[in-house]
Design goal:
CATH architecture of the largest domain: 2-Layer Sandwich
CATH superfamily of the largest domain: Chloramphenicol acetyltransferase-like domain
Strand content: 15-25%
Helix content: 25-40%
Oligomer: single chain
Shape: globular
CATH class of the largest domain: Alpha Beta
Amino acid sequence: MPKQTVEVIMPQLAESLVSATIDRWLKEPGQEVEMYEPLCELITDKVNAELPSTAKGILVKILVGAGETVDVGTPVCLIETEAEAAADSAPTGGAESPAAAAQPVEAASARPAAPLMPAAFDPDAPMRHRYSPAVQKLAAEHSIDLSRVRGTGMGGRITRKDVLEAARKGTAGFAAAVAPAAAAPAEREAAKVPMDPKVPVRTTGLHLSETIRIPTVEEEGQEVPGRGEYIIDVTPVRNSIATKMRQSASEIPHGWMMIEVDVTNLVLLRNKLKEEFSRQEGINLTYMPFLCKATVNAIKDYPIMNSVWATDKIIVKRDINLSLAVGTEDSVITPVIRNADQKNIAGLAHEIHDLARRTREGKIKLSDLQGGTFTVNNTGAFGSILSQPIINYPQAAILTFESIVKKPVVINDMIGVRSMVNICLSLDHRILDGVICGRFLQRVKENLESYNLDTKLY
């Protein structure tokens, strides 16, 4: 049967992204590739993804090397395939190639990398038994049978963390940490690793969230013999975070303000409603939706807070799209609640829960990370009482909600025990000044202190 060489094109990962960087190639020239099998790992400033093959055949030539950045529509490699099979597959070259291969696709956020593929494609098929050299080496060191480890990566791919988790569980926890490789997707989903039964001792703060497992240096790094040091490779996600933070800190002249808020009534309100809300809605009622509602109402009074610097002008955004700083064990992602000012407290609670859950499960979409105009962050979840956050570039400000702490407070020359919280604001001093930010913080304070037992969630 005649052979045909087809081009694999750099796809458009999202409407606003016009290029991507090839991190590393997963296939080498001369190797066979299946349809939709990942060819290489891509990096953008928002997410990482794997580029799937659009043809079945032999990889004959790599056109773009690792570390190179290319525009959407650029050929990255050549695959030799049978002409009949090529005709049946999606076109990858010629005049129609960019339109077919460069359609926007949804990629999972941060790690693990998500393959870009049609919805009808079963991601488990090509990924289930693909082990990286690092995973194989780690499994050998810990005597782990990879065929029995349940992979948490996209398509069931086994990551270093899966191997380390299986090793950490040991014999006692092995049954819960692994599942048969041939298990159905529903069975693999049911084989969840149980949470650590240890409950953290809370010495301060009223709203510390559940503990997120933090990898140890020994797990993540490689020890340098004789030097007493560990070397940890900088991941693409960490490198992207570093770039954005450096850009924000170097380009934006940061200013900081803090105000103390009495949220005693808010604590009473949440305690009154949380059990009923959990029964009716199936999610926990946290303090974040109350903070978000108080913030967006203050932004409506002071719209300049919802702006960006544009060299010779200031662009004030009409839509209030709140970015939420969601921390995972190895990164911070900022998914967006669109038109947050049009949602009630219950609606905000559902949005926050959904975005946080999908972020931590690696299922966030690229579109969920775009369009944010103002960022809020719950640093109180870690027990922090005072933070100086870095602005989420290119926004004008970021607000942190610290830990709620019971403190003695003077009220009408009398001392009472109240639930107090600090809210901290970082501001772009090119756009905002102390007067406007002070009034904005006062309005957020007023909104938070106005909650009472009669406040409605719907």
